[in-house]
Structures are given as C-alpha cells and as structure tokens.
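User: Please predict structures.

Assistant: First:
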Amino acid sequence: MQRTVFNDDHETFRKTLRDFIAKEVVLHYHDWEKQGHPPRNFYNRLGELGVLGIEAPEEFGGGGIKDFTYSMVIAEETSAAGVTFGSYSVHSNLILPYLMEYGTDEQKHRWLPGFCSGDIMFAIAMTEPGTGSDLANISTTATLSEDGSHYVLDGAKTFITGGALADRVLVVCRTSPFDADNRRSGLSILVVDTTSEGFSVGRKLEKIGLKASDTAELAFSSVRVPVEDRLGDEGAGFSYLTHNLAQERLTIAVGASATAAAAVQHALAYTTERDVFGKPVSSFQNTKFVLAECSAEVEAIRQFVDRAMELHNAGDLSVPDAARVKLFATETAGRVIDKCLQLHGGYGYILEYPIARLYADTRVSRIYGGTNEVMKTIIAKDLGL
C-alpha cells in the first residue's frame, strides 16, 4: 500500500543513511557482534552524520527537527541491512525526551552538545534484579546529604542497554521511603557520571540476539551525585517515566515493522535464488502462499505503525494506543520472521544469513518496554475491564 508518512527530506536522509551503512557498518558488523558493541568512536560518526540529535535544538548541535519519522527511516535501513547501531535507539529515542522535557537550561547546555556529537553517551537504568515491569518496586536508594549538596546512591541495576560504554546513566532510584499506600511516590531520576567513585559495571550479559548492543549490570556503592544532576523534581520520577512510555513503545513497534518487512525481502531473495528439485524454491505453491501471508501481515503492521507515528508527531498518541501498536506489531513480526526463516531451510539457522539475526533480535521486543502481558493489561484497563 502507498505510504504517506515520508516526505522528500526523509528519502534524502534514507539515501545518505543507506550509503553510510554499506560503507561503515556492514563490513564490520560481525566484529562488533563478537566484541559485544560497536567501537566507541562509531557513536561520534553517528553524531557527525546528525543521527543522534535529530530532534535536539540546533543551539546544542542538533537538527532542530521535531519529527520522529526519521527514527523509522533508521530502523528500516538498519533492518534491511541486517545490522543495528548498537545502543543508539536508547540514547536518542528514549533518553532525549527526558532531557528535553525535564532538564534545566543549565543541564541542557552541559549535556546536549555532547549528546548530539556522541561525546557523551547516555543509558537509562530502571530494571533491577528483583524489579522488571513493576517500577514502583524499585529499591535502589539515594539519600540526600545533610547539607543538601549531593545524594548518596546505593543499589544495583540489570539489563541496562548501553550501560557498559555509557558516560552518563539516568538512574531511577528511591529518594524517600517506600509507601505501601502510594507505591509510585518517592522515585527520582539522577543523571550519574560513570567516572564517579563507587560506580561499577558488572557482567556484560550474553544475549540470544542484539549482540552488537551491550547490555550490562551496574552497581552503585555510596556514589556521590551532585544535587544539580537530579533530573526534574525529587519524588516525581514515576510520572516522568510514564510520560515517555508512548514514544518508547512506538519505537519498539517501529523496529518490529522494519524487521518484519526486511524478513520478507530476505525470504524473497533467498527463495528466488535457491533451487530445490531443479527449480527455485519460490516456484512452489507453499512458498508463494507463505510469502503472500507474510506480505499481508507486514502491510497491516505498517499501516498501524504509520498511523501511530502520525498521531505521535501530532502529540496525540495515547498510552493505551501505544500499547496496542506495540502488542500487535511485535507479536505479528515474530510470526512473520519465523515463517521467513522456515523458508530458508537449514540456512535460516546460520548466523551469516540476516534472517537468523532478525529472528534472534526480534524476540526481546515482546519483553522490553513493558512485556506484552503488561500491554494487554493496559489495553484491558482502557476498555473498562
């Protein structure tokens, strides 16, 4: 179906990005996977290309373009090439809205130039060993010093994307005692300098997929965090987190749409070139029917995601609708990619083929950003159930 979310500027950006991926990512990607992340200076290259700060104000070195559609272009082009940009998406799509919405002018001047250039890479630390989707149960604590100049941060976080290379980490922590009657109160966000004494990176976690994106455990042992590095008001952290949920879940849905579409293209190419019993795999009725099903499902994802993107750019995408698009896109993408891998036969299980990477990478989309079971709960609540 014809898509209307892209304009000429998006397509010009797409061509530049496609050339960049071919020259500077594809040839090195296997090494990045073995290393567990891209080289640190790769993020500076993304900064030079203007990728990191597209929506950040020009005064800080950003593009000054309030249009989240560019993130869709990036997702589509990386998926088509079977690669990722490491922890780029967390840095640019998840964290920038927090800095823009809740950062003071002083904080923006201090952090955003480095954010846009790649000199300061950010991560966000919410999940704890005993706390996943239930953010109100966070136990990492930050105690304000007697003179009010700094917090003392203690605790541990896990599954932190970009945590191993980050220069600053937005740490969600408890700055007042747990209140059983109001479990969401007392949470704050501290922007922690990773060179601080008492901060440490624990295990770099080995994952099924997304192998070129580092995921780590973080520990905080009496880390001193200046009070001027608190993001927003003390105790308002939970409301800040929910404020950005729509964009976070749309980001995941965009990725699902892109990977599903890429899977179909990879399957088309493989089945056309691969001969079985003297003729192309694509000539068999089963192949045609499977690809026809997948094509229809990809179009359904795309139309849903494109509409959600239009609503988001207009400031009208609700949390329940973001949950709907995340649920549908990720579940459907999982089915599509599985079918496309099957069409590759044994080669679909070999990592040198992009379909194998897509299969492994997409599985977590039903888990992070709130599990799909949580998405169903949100939708059900919106239905009055």
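Second:
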Amino acid sequence: MKRKALALFIGLTISTGALAANKSTSSDLEQRLNQLEQRLIAAEQRAATAEAEIQQIKTTPKSAQTTAPVQVVSEQSVNDKADNQSPKLSLTGYGDLKIYGDVEFNMDAASRSNGLTSVRRSANTNWADGNNERWDINGRLLLGFDGYRRMENGQFAGFSAQPLADLSGDMNLDDAVFFFGQENDWKIKVGRFEAYDMFPLNQDTFVEYSGNTANDLYGDGFGYIYMMKEGRGRSDSGGSFLMSKTIDNWYFEFNTLLEDGTSLYQDKSYHGNELTKDKNVAYLRPVISWSQDEFSVAAAMEAQVVDNAYGYKDANGQMVDQSSRTGYGLTMTWNGLKSDPDNGIVANFNTAYLDAADETDFTAGVNALWQRFELGYIYAHNDIDKFDVNSAMDTCEDDCWITNAGTYDIHTIHTSYQFPNVMGMKNFNIYLGTYVSWVSADNDGSDSDDNTRYGGRVRFKYYF
C-alpha cells in the first residue's frame, strides 16, 4: 500500500540521517527498526478502522442518521425557564405505590320505594326513601392509592386510601386502612374497612340491603334484612381493628368495631322510640373459615358488648337500654370458576340470626352464577316484641310498613346479567339487574294490597 511505502521511506530516511549524524552503533539501528515496525502496525490498525467507519456511513440511510435537535427558544421562554421545568413524580423509595380506580354509574327505574325494607336503593349516600316511583341516574367514581412494602423475610406493611366522588356532588370514602404482618401467616389492620363477608350476594347489582357502610342499616317501620353486617366495619362514626391468621386451609379473623351505636339506625329511631346515645359501642366479630379447592365454609358471631350504650327514656324518665345485639352467621360457597373459568358455577348459601333488644331476626339466602347470569332468593323473618305505636305514627305517617309488634316475612328475588368487554375493552362491563320484594304479616299492621316493590337497573362499570 502507498501508505506503507511512504511510511517506510520516511522512517528509513530519518533513521539513515540520524545514523550518519550520530555515527550510531549497529545495536541502535536494530532498536530503531523495532520502533519503526511498531509504528507501522499501529498505522495499519488506524487505517483499517477509518476505512470501516467510512464504509458504514456510506451504507447507512440518511433517515437513520442522528441529527441534533433544533430548539426554538423565545426571549420570554428563556426568562420563564424556571417556571417551565418538566413535572416530576418523586417517590420515597419505601415500597411500591399503586394508583387505580373504577367508575360505577347506574340508571335506575323502580316502583315507589317507601315501605318494605330498610334497603339503600341508591349508590349515593342518601337512603332514597319516598312515596313516588323513582327514575334517576346515580353512582360514584372511586380513586384508589395502595402502598405496599415487603421485606426479604416475608414481613410486610402498607396502606390503602379510596376516596369517592358521587353524582350528588358529595365526597366520601370507602377504605382508609393501615396494615402489616407476615405473608401467608398473620395480619393486622386498623382504620376504615370491611371485614369478612358473611352474606355474599354474588353478582348482585340492585339489592343493596347493606348499603356501603355499617351505618343506616336499620330503618324503623321497615323490614330488616339482617346479614351479619353490623360489626363488619367501614363505619362513618368509628374505626376497626382486625387480627387474622392463616394455617393451611384454615383462616381465623377477629374484628373489633368501635363507633356511635345509634348510627346503625335511620333517623336514630327504634321501635317507635327516639334513641339517645350515652357512650360508644364495641362490636366483637370472630370468624373462622375453611376452604379446599372449590368449596369453602365460614361461621361467625358478632356481639355488641357495652351495656347501656344507648336507649330511650320511658314515661318515668328512666333510660331503657336498647343496645343489646348479638348475631350469628354461616355461609357456604362453591366456586367452580377456579377449575373451569368458562363454565364454572358459583353458588352461595347464607344464613344469619340476630338476637336484639325486643326483636329477633332470621335471614337465609341462596344465589348462583353461571356464564355471567345470576339468580338469587332471600328470605327474612322479623319478630318484634314491642313497638310504640303512638310515637311511630308521629314520625312515620303513611311511609312505614311496620307499625305494630308482630312477625313479618320478607321475600326477595334478584337477578343480574353481565355484558363483559364492551367495545373490546377488558376493563369495561355493563350489568342489567332486577329485583322484586314482598311482605306478609300475621297482623293488621300492613296493607296487604300494597306489599310489592320492584325495580330495574343498568350499571356501567369501568376500571382504570
């Protein structure tokens, strides 16, 4: 190559001149020849690298060549540079943070809603009672924030906060809870949350006897569908402390709910008497559950253990305790979706019994879900020992169904169907739900010609 010959000629010229000028020995000449050889090798390597780079540039399309971006900056933008920095999300690094939510909006049509049961027929916080037919749109938007940190030894801690915005313009809250424990072993939770569900209704969309909280479950003058929810939690007037333990197929849970006991009752009325609070109540709610493959069974008890927490004053001005309430429940579930996600059947059998001041209630329900279609039946029996008819007439007028002591049977049939993956979106579902309820009584405290209620709902459910 020309480069090699030129380099050799220059090297020899320099070496010969130096040899003649300095009259060097033959050993110096050998040393210089070795240095010249190393320089030639280095020159060849640099030449080969340069030729490879030139060839790569020639074969690379112009569209793939990187060009420096040109940014047009005005004088105003330069002055406001400090105010136009890109937004940043900074995390503490203490575990994982999850942000999620769901939209649940309903279009409802129902017969006149007063009278049969203490049912919250709206997804909003209001009780939705009244004498007229109901046509409305209601619902809420939930935004959730979950934090979780797990250590290498399986110990963990975290929190969950779920604010709600409903269509009535109110801001509410589902869960606000802190928890910690050992994975697959034990766990402690404190705050606002719901404990174990002892009366699951499967894919129900309209029969919301329990509402969204442990409050306003009992409407005086209406049938009561007891479902072991009084000590479950998510109260608007108190908080819960829960301890749980898992051993093989067994699960143990003990929840304590401290709250204003009168918040259980609509309008703070019970058996025609106005209730007065003296101190907070304490519900103790132990649950034991066993599961194997598709089958699970759970038994539970909830008891209000504070005496004279609230009551009413009799004709002599003496306080009559009304805070004694103890309930028992049993639920069994077959979840065939675990082994057959496409055609499996989910079936629940639930029963609950309440022994309360001057009243006992028994409830049983069965429901089944198959290929997104759900059908269920609920039976409730209320036995009321005492009822102040005169006081009830002052507050109920024509709105109450139960205005006397006696026994009342309440029947409810509910059904729903799910349309999944609307518009091909796995996070968007639509539900159709209907129900019908009626009451039979053993006395003249009800109008047998007007004992049926019914309704239908379209629910839009979107997850994000």
